[in-house]
Amino acid sequence: xxxxxxxxxxxxxxxxxxxxxxxxxxxxxxxxxxxxxxxxxxxxxxxxxxxxxxxxxxxxxxxxxxxxxxxxxxxxxxxxxxxxxxxxxxxxxxxxxxxxxxxxxxxxxxxxxxxxxxxxxxxxxxxxxxxxxxxxxxxxxxxxxxxxxxxxxxxxxxxxxxxxxxxxxxxxxxxxxxxxxxxxxxxxxxxxxxx
Length: 195
What we know:
Blueprint: E1 3-5, E2 10-14, E3 17-21, E4 32-37, E5 40-45, E6 48-54, E7 66-68, H1 72-81, E8 95-105, E9 113-118, E10 123-128, E11 138-143, E12 157-159, E13 162-164, E14 166-168
Parallel strand pairs: 1-7
Antiparallel strand pairs: 1-2, 2-3, 3-6, 4-5, 5-6, 8-9, 8-11, 9-10, 11-14, 12-13
């Protein structure tokens, strides 16, 4: 089993290497450059850090195979080691707890529901085909830039001519062998979801 860490960012493990993707970027972009620092390869797109490849990660982190969250120790280590390149905001989560404040059936497709979701600092409209979503309840959502465990990239797009700005998460979409939607009613929208 590979290591998968997708709380704040997308981590992909290959043998003894980990790739940490901070921001979505076009790998064919001619403005991509890298800087090598010891076992770390910093990836830049348009002069903004978008990822880090860590070679021989076991020298730095004790991470076992399986599904993990990006913990504060790894964040602090990277922020201290690369303070010239990384800032705290680079660790903003792609996965956020949101409160469903309104639900309505999609006018063009009866199998879809339009959710109005309140996050900590903003509202978003998210379309889903999942059922049994309750109004005034908190769930986990993936927003623009997230990549699910199956490799699906979450981008703002139109579904049946209606804008959808994210995705409500099921356990399966997180790569967790459990049925159902990720219920966060025990957390507030101020909290961070920990896998």
